[in-house]
Design brief:
The chain is of the alpha+beta class. It has 11 helices and 15 strands. The protein has helices spanning about 1-15, 105, 115-125, 135-140, 145-160, 170-190, 190-200, 240-255, 275-285, 300-305, 335-345; strands spanning about 25-35, 40-45, 50-55, 60-65, 70-75, 80-85, 95-100, 110, 210-215, 220, 230-235, 260-265, 290, 310-315, 320-325. A hairpin with a 4-residue loop joins strand 9 and strand 10 (about 220). Helix 5 (about 145-160) packs antiparallel against helix 6 (about 170-190). The longest helix is centred in the middle third of the chain and has 20 residues, at about 145-160. It is globular, with a radius of gyration of 23 Å. The termini are far apart.
């Protein structure tokens, strides 16, 4: 009887230590050190958002649901200006830890979906390194140099992907297909982009926008800002990466308040979504100059700058000439500050 009781007690202990299944939601836990943020924000395409409180010791635990087809998310530490991709599926237990002073290098996922999330971290590190695609530089190269860069990037991504053994075969093949299609798309655009890059060289006159609708009811033209640097954010309410950049852009505007620069946010939302645009500007109390491009992504300005993906950032000098036709994102603090040093000189 005593032996049976001991066995039952042992079984009860094991059962209590096992996590209970939860097929309808994700459980996420982790620990963050050296961070300013007191929240982790998780964004999904379509506007879904989950905010998770970080305790004083840096730990957190919470749950959230993932809608079908929305498993690829964006995770942000807004006060630290850090972000990464997060794969999550209902029923999974996700755990990660990171040091905010060197976020991507120290970010490590364990438990469910660890390998795919760690690969996504590696992919972001590769993409933001010297190996990663840099549109404003690569399309200026001659064909041979460009092709060599593409080959090196492909090898880096495939090597990282194949270093993980627990990525499901279907997901593995999907990612390989993504890499192929991504690089094929870059190659297919070489001729036209190379021609555009020549037109949009630093110092050339910038394409202009004229009488674009302003949030305050007036109209705005690029010429209105002659004598000032103009930093333009081309974005849309339906673009999750665009919305993820908004807090970083707001911080940048505050930092450069009083300097000889104006920040312009140009929405490429459709006219049918004008109220959605106006509501977001109001709800988020977005600062700077808020304008709506006519004809959405087909406006003369976006065509002239060959904008086929957003967000897109552009810096124009006080004489109306191009400083950078594809500027770093505000979330890339080091690079954006290097660029905007010219404003203070």
């Amino acid at each position: 009887m005593k032996k049976i009781a001991m066995l039952l007690a042992g079984f009860a202990l094991v059962s209590c230590n096992q996590k209970q299944p939860h097929p309808d939601y994700v459980e996420i836990t982790g620990k963050l050190t050296n961070v300013k943020s007191d929240k982790v924000s998780i964004y999904a395409m379509g506007g879904d958002k989950k905010v998770i409180e970080i305790s004083e010791d840096g730990t957190f635990i919470d749950t959230f649901k993932v809608r079908q087809g929305k498993t690829k998310l964006q995770m942000m530490l807004e006060k630290d200006h850090k972000m990464c991709t997060l794969f999550a599926e209902n029923g999974s237990n996700i755990h990660f830890e990171a040091d905010g002073s060197d976020f991507l290098s120290t970010l490590k996922f364990t438990e469910d979906l660890a390998d795919i999330n760690n690969y996504e971290r590696d992919k972001m590190m590769i993409m933001t390194s010297d190996q990663g695609f840099n549109r404003k530089i690569w399309y200026r190269f001659d064909q041979e140099t460009f092709d060599s860069k593409i080959s090196t990037l492909r090898q880096a991504l495939i090597t990282s992907l194949e270093s993980y053994s627990n990525i499901p075969q279907e997901q593995l093949e999907e990612e390989k297909s993504f890499i192929d299609k991504y690089l094929e798309r870059l190659v297919s655009k070489y001729d036209s982009e190379h021609a555009y890059a020549s037109k949009l060289e630093k110092g050339n006159p910038s394409p202009a926008f004229e009488n674009y609708e302003n949030y305050d009811g007036s109209t705005t033209s690029l010429s209105d800002f002659k004598g000032k640097y103009v930093f333009i954010d081309v974005w849309a309410t339906w673009c999750s990466p665009c919305k993820a950049e908004i807090p970083f852009l707001e911080a940048l505007e505050k930092e450069y308040h009083g300097e000889n620069i104006v920040f312009v946010s140009m929405s490429v939302d459709k006219q049918a979504d004008k109220e959605k645009w106006r509501n977001m500007v109001k709800d988020k109390a977005m600062s700077g100059v808020q304008i709506l491009a006519p004809n959405a992504t087909g406006s003369e300005f976006t065509r002239a700058y060959n904008i086929n993906a957003i967000p897109r950032f552009i810096l124009i000098d006080p004489q109306g000439n191009i400083v950078d036709f594809n500027a770093p994102r505000p979330s890339n603090k080091e690079e954006i500050h290097k660029l905007l040093d010219v404003v203070k000189s």
